[in-house]
Design a protein that fits this description.
92 residues, alpha+beta, YaeB-like fold, five-stranded mixed β-sheet, 26% strand
């Protein structure tokens, strides 16, 4: 399967990395590098993560990484995984 990253995901990840970089540039690079490495593993085991709690669709899964939720769509017909977004849910 091929991994495709939506623009929304890319923009939000950039904001998160910039926020982390305000504190530590090396931690921001490590966070980004480790996340990319983990997302690449989804190509081989796309159903390893839980069914999304945000969508009522068996093909949308939630990958949780360091407190961030990354929903992704498994499109078996087109043999792709579409990474939709990245966010951190905060209870106020």
């Amino acid at each position: 399967m091929t991994l495709i990253k939506e623009v929304h995901f890319t923009r939000n990840l950039e904001c998160i990395v910039l926020y982390i970089a305000d504190d530590s540039k090396s931690r921001a690079r490590t966070f980004s590098r480790n996340l990319q490495k983990q997302l690449n593993h989804l190509e081989y085991f796309p159903y390893k993560c839980r069914k999304s709690i945000y969508f009522d669709n068996e093909h949308i899964r939630d990958y949780v990484f360091k407190g961030y939720t990354i929903p992704y769509l498994i499109d078996e017909e087109n043999d792709v995984i579409v990474v939709l977004d990245i966010f951190k849910w905060i209870d106020k």
